[in-house]
Write a structure and sequence with these properties.
The chain contains 15 helices and no strands. The longest helix is centred in the middle third of the chain and has 38 residues.
């Protein structure tokens, strides 16, 4: 969990924003963890003057302090895709069934990899067309519309704002999921010693609200470094012990006791949960833009290598997690651990601590973006009190989202996955490819157009069905 990394990137970008207003956008962060550290940050060059060239290669015009190597970019991409969502994958298998979950996770992983491919390729084409060295996610959307068919050009600013707002909301809703993660672990831990606290889920949210408000007033990233280290350490401890419990005595489980297919009504939940856990579309362009060699795509490339590891790991955790606990599998696999054992109690405490301090780091980026959008409208002598009120209000807002979800952690994950990741991870990249390839065509028999329309249809299906079934579960 390297959320501090992305905060460092955004901090440096914000400081240079006046001089280079279009270099960094909100798309330089993700909903999980981010990977680009401050030694690998691109020198902000804004949207530079167009370079006269017959064949423009964006890689040749990237001015970087310390460009990412193949291995560096690979590590960054792996870190961005491995977050707390992995603990919910066994529950996705429960929704779909063991066999459907196995192949479904692989298929969704391939689909996510493909949409990332088309987003990066589209960004390269737009950069070459506009003679720009690199673009982020939101800027790619804007430039694709601006240079696309004439009827779409007036919508370019809207396209950028849509992607930016969606990414901000993804972060805030992701933080709401974090609060539910914390309270679920706290309830599991304290209810063993104090049974009356088993129904204290909402009370625990109120208990951590004040500490969250206080901690989120920290404005300097350097003061968050120790908390980042503590969060990483606690998550490693929790994940290691959880794996021990998953594989302990797993040989005693009979395959015949597990459902291979759990009904069509479980597919939307499965789809949304896997998207939430696996998708890291917000980190893709910052990582790719940190490279000066065209080794991000291709085989073997950074993307294919990283996603192969991610898909294999998520599939294994989901398969064995559901195989071990069956229909008793909880929204987060840590809830299946025995409350009476010290090791399991350490997991609950570790998860609570890790996610609490991760919240602080995740909160920094969308808060900074929100503040930068409104601060010019506030007198400078009121900036301090305005920041305090803004931070307090946003923490209360995020906690309110978590409280509305109650104990329905799985439902909240489904909603975020269905609404945001179906849109940003599937629909938007497919639409961008259609627009970018409009003039040159979509291949023989218009196959790319047909393929992208199918992806967009699947995204709409995931959004509508995932949201519908999640809403039904909350009743």
């Amino acid at each position: 969990m390297n959320e501090l990394r992305i905060s460092q990137v955004w901090k440096m970008a914000s400081e240079k924003k006046e001089k280079y207003p279009s270099t960094f956008t909100i798309d330089n962060f993700s909903s999980t963890a981010t990977l680009t550290n401050n030694d690998q940050i691109k020198v902000p060059i804004g949207l530079p003057e167009k370079v006269e060239a017959t064949d423009y290669n964006p890689y040749e015009h990237r001015n970087l302090v310390h460009p990412n190597s193949f291995s560096g970019a690979l590590i960054h991409l792996l870190k961005s895709s491995l977050g707390t969502g992995i603990l919910a994958i066994p529950r996705a298998f429960k929704s779909a069934g063991l066999l459907v979950g196995l192949f479904g996770t692989i298929i969704i992983g391939l689909l996510c990899t493909h949409t990332i491919h088309i987003l990066v390729r589209a960004s390269h084409k737009v950069c070459a067309k506009s003679k720009l060295p690199s673009l982020g996610f939101a800027d790619t959307a804007e430039e694709a519309f601006r240079t696309g068919p004439k009827p779409l050009r007036p919508w370019s600013r809207f396209a950028k704002n849509f992607v930016e707002i969606a990414l901000v909301l993804t972060y805030y809703c992701g933080n709401a999921v974090y609060i539910v993660f914390i309270t679920v672990s706290m309830t599991k831990l304290f209810s063993y010693y104090f049974p009356e606290t088993a129904t204290w889920d909402q009370y625990f949210k109120l208990m951590i609200l004040i500490p969250l408000i206080i901690c989120c007033q920290v404005r300097e990233l350097k003061h968050l470094v120790p908390f980042s280290f503590l969060a990483n350490t606690m998550m490693v401890v929790a994940f290691g012990i959880t794996l021990y419990y998953i594989f302990y005595d797993i040989g005693q489980v009979q395959l015949a006791d597990r459902k291979m297919f759990n009904g069509w009504e479980g597919i939307p939940s499965f789809f949304s949960t896997v998207l939430f856990a696996m998708e890291g579309i917000g980190t893709i362009m910052p990582v790719e833009n940190s490279m000066v060699e065209p080794r991000f795509l291709g085989c073997p490339g950074v993307l294919n290598s990283a996603m192969s590891v991610v898909v294999c790991l998520y599939t294994a955790i989901g398969f064995f997690g559901y195989y071990k606990y069956g229909e008793s599998t909880e929204a987060t696999i840590t809830r299946n651990l025995p409350s009476s054992e010290i090791a399991a109690q350490i997991v609950q405490a570790s998860i609570s601590i890790a996610v609490f301090f991760t919240f602080m780091l995740q909160f920094y980026v969308p808060l900074d973006i929100t503040w930068n959008r409104i601060k010019h409208r506030i007198p400078e002598n009121r900036h301090n009190i305005s920041q305090i009120l803004l931070r307090t209000g946003l923490v209360i807002f995020v906690t309110g989202i978590a409280a509305a979800g109650g104990e329905h952690l799985g439902v909240l994950i489904d909603l975020v996955g269905a609404i945001f990741f179906s849109t940003l991870g599937l629909f938007v990249p497919a639409l961008i490819e259609i627009i970018v390839d409009w003039d040159e065509g979509w291949g023989r028999f218009q196959w790319r157009l047909i393929k992208d329309v199918l992806i967009m249809t699947l995204a709409v299906f995931g959004l509508v069905s995932g949201s519908y079934y999640a809403a039904l579960e909350m009743k």
